Amino acid sequence: MNFFLETIQVVLLSIWFNVESFIHLFVPRKRKNISGEVVLITGAGSGIGRLMAQEFAALGTVLVLWDINKDGVKETARLAQSNGAIKVHHYLCDCSDKNEVYRVADQVKREVGDVSILVNNAGIVTGKKFIDAPDSLIEKTMEVNTMAHFWTYKAFLPAMIANNHGHLVSIASSAGLIGVNGLADYCASKFAAVGFAESVGLELLATGKDGVKTTIVCPYFINTGMFDGCQTKWPTVLPILDPHYVVKQILYAVLTDQVFLLLPRSMYLIAGLKNILQWNVSSLLGVYLGLAGDIECDT
Questions:
Q1: Which active-site residues does the annotation give?
Q2: Domain holding 217: CATH number?
Q3: Are 57 and 85 in contact (CB under 8 A)?
Q4: Residue ranges with strand state E in 62-189
Q5: 26 in a domain, yes or no?
Q6: How many structural domains compose the chain?
Q7: How would you write the pLDDT of the chain (299 residues) with one tens digit per residue?
Q8: First vs last Cα of the chain: how many Å apart?
Q9: What angle do CA 187, 63, 155 make, to 5 degrees?
Q10: Is the residue at 22 inside a domain?
Q11: With left for phi above 0 and alpha for psi between -120 and 50, is residue 107 left, alpha or beta?
Q12: For strand 291-292 and strand 87-92, is the pairing parallel, antiparallel, or unpaired?
């Protein structure tokens, strides 16, 4: 296809996708049925990981739960089972350790089978200015928030590709779209997570594996304890998000094969402004998005 025809195709498809998005503001998208699917959630021992497990359980799925907290993941498994899961398997796994990810992944394949929905949810934040953050915590942030996604994809994506069926869900952050004052290492890890998930999604489309979907979730800060001690500067425009609301939106995005989910909705406007404004103007958004108060590190 020559340059002119391909350009016309892109323009027409862009118009169509925008029209389709406008229509879906008024007409709900069709939800897919995931009953019987095997769903693996990392960081499932607390927070939105636990809430997602309960929501996926209610849809009649088989759950595989990973966390480093034995008591936490065990309690999540109990709650998920009581909420309607077909079966729940839980494992201790430190997602920052590549060898452990591969070892536990092999165990899952033997004991449960192929994972068809992978939710990379595990995450940490140092809560320190870049200069003040110890090297060990910076490395841990990158290992958990970014590199763990590489290893879980390596472990579970081949089966999805072979079946041309599956769903990759990346729980990233709005801090993976716009740099935020005081969160340099966290932003770097989330920018990487967003870029990685988007790039792999494009690889899948380019190779004709359109049955493997991607959903990238970029919420503002969530009231789960990770950002205890913080208050948003502008609660009307950018509120600290309720975890139950966030999880409902994530499930809807997965069930409707939505590629990007930004929360709250004002993030769509803010992210768009960043892309069209000059750097010296758009950089102010990072300060605008900053949090007031001290962040307590959730590790």
A1: 186
A2: 3.40.50.720
A3: yes
A4: 62-67, 87-92, 117-120, 166-171
A5: no
A6: 1
A7: 577 777 787 677 667 766 766 676 677 778 999 999 999 999 999 999 999 999 999 999 999 999 999 999 999 999 999 999 999 999 999 999 999 999 999 999 999 999 999 999 999 988 788 999 999 999 999 999 999 999 999 999 999 999 999 999 999 999 899 887 788 999 999 999 999 999 999 999 999 999 999 999 999 889 887 766 666 777 777 888 999 999 999 999 999 999 999 999 988 888 887 777 666 555 666 565 554 444 444 43
A8: 51
A9: 60
A10: no
A11: alpha
A12: unpaired
Instruction: Examine residue 14 and state whether it is found in any structural domain, yes or no.
Output: no
Closest-CA residue to 220 (of 272, 259, 267)? 267
Domain extent for 226: 33-289
User: Could you tell me if 170 and 118 are in contact, meaning their C-beta atoms sit under 8 angstroms apart?
Assistant: no
Which residues on adjacent β-strands are paired with residue 66? 91
Give backbone dihedrals phi and psi of 218, rounded to 5 degrees, phi first: -125, 80
Question: Residues 67, 96: contact at Cβ < 8 Å?
Answer: no
24 within some domain: no
